[in-house]
Structure formats: structure tokens, C-alpha cells
Amino acid sequence: MDRLVDLLPELWAATAETLYVVSFSLLLGGLAGLLVGLALYATRAGSLFPNRVLFAALNVVVNFFRPIPFVILLAAVQPLARALGIPGIGPEFGIFAITIASLFAISRIVEQNLLTVRPGVIEAARATGASRSRILFRLLPREALGPLILGYTFIVVALVDMTAIAGAVAAGGLGEFAIVYGFKQFNPWVTWAAVLVIIVLVQAVQFLGNALARRVLRR
């Protein structure tokens, strides 16, 4: 217990590092995943911009990367990160790997939530003269906003989990803190302190996401 008290500054620093990695990964992966998800929705048969070849290509890429366990993806993308000038360890590498993993997960969530929008809403918009691009980039995200918020909330929780896993390859954050100061030094107090902080972060994200989604869905 005394060791945990001594390590409190490192614990708060690791918490801040986790929030940093999650925030940047969500920003990069969230935007890229949104665009890929919109493309998947728009190019499927019978949609706004049907394109069988492009849809098939996107679908194959997403289905290829999405099932890869994150711990394996970490090792797989390390050479690519180094080739791009990104260190193979540290928070920057964590952001790079988590962005790739979240991109494909988010794209599928976006596509599935857009598919829940009733066809009548799209038909009514087309009847009023709305362009296909306006429908895709403005109407559909607004109509599916509540489910999208819940989907992104799920992703943020997954990102927190990924940062903990990334700690196994010295990518910083609470995962590395728990491994270095807890697991390797046989100190369960330190390990469980990191676990509790992660639980608090996850519960806070889930609460805020659920509250925001309820507010949107009641409009």
C-alpha cells in the first residue's frame, strides 16, 4: 500500500496519457471511420451512389482488418509505424495502432446505424429537391444521431481497453503503469489501482454517452 502512495504521481500521469491517446485516436479514427462508413452506405446496391466495385473493395478491406485481435494488430503494424517515422513504442505508436483498429470498427457501426434510417425519410428529402450529397452528409447523420452517439460511446470504451492492451508494448498509459509497477513487481495494490481508474473512466464515458443519446432521441 505504501508503494501505491509513492506511485500516485505516476498513476495520475498515466491516466492523463491514457486520455491523451484515447482523445487523439478517437479524433483520427472517428473521422476516418465516419467517412468510410458513409462510403459503405452510399455505394451499396440501391443506395444513393451505388457502385458495386467500390462497395466490394471497401467491404473486403473492413472485413479483413476488423476481426484481427488488437494485440496481434499491435505487432503487425509496428514495422509500418517505423517506416512512417513513428516510434515502435510510446503513446504515438499507441495512437497509430488504435486509430487503425478503431477506423474499421467505427466504419461498420456508422454503416449499420445509417441503415436504420427509414427509406421514407430519404424519399421525402429527394421529393423536396435535396441532392444526394446533402442527404448523405447532412440528413442521414442527423436522423441517425442518437444511435451514432451510442455507437461512438461503445467505441470510446473499447479505445480505453485498447490503450491498456497497448501498455504491453510500452505504449504508455494505465496499461503500462499496471504492468511495470504492478504485475512485474508483484504488487496487486498498484495493479488494482490502475484497474479502478479504468473502470471510473469507462463508467463516466458510458454515462455521458447514454445521457447525450437520450437527449437526442427525445427531440
UniProtKB/TrEMBL annotation:
A Pfam match: BPD_transp_1
Keyword Nuclease belongs to the record: no
UniProt topology in membrane: Multi-pass membrane protein
Segments traversing the membrane: 20-41, 53-77, 89-110, 144-169, 189-213
CDD domains: TM_PBP2 (cd06261)
ABC transmembrane type-1 domain boundaries: 15-209
Cross-referenced InterPro entries: AA_ABC_Transporter_Permease, MetI-like, MetI-like_sf
Sequence similarity: Belongs to the binding-protein-dependent transport system permease family.
PANTHER family the UniProt entry points to: ABC TRANSPORTER PERMEASE, TRANSPORTER, PERMEASE PROTEIN, PUTATIVE-RELATED
Protein name: ABC transporter permease subunit
Upper lineage: Bacteria, Bacillati, Actinomycetota, Actinomycetes, Micrococcales
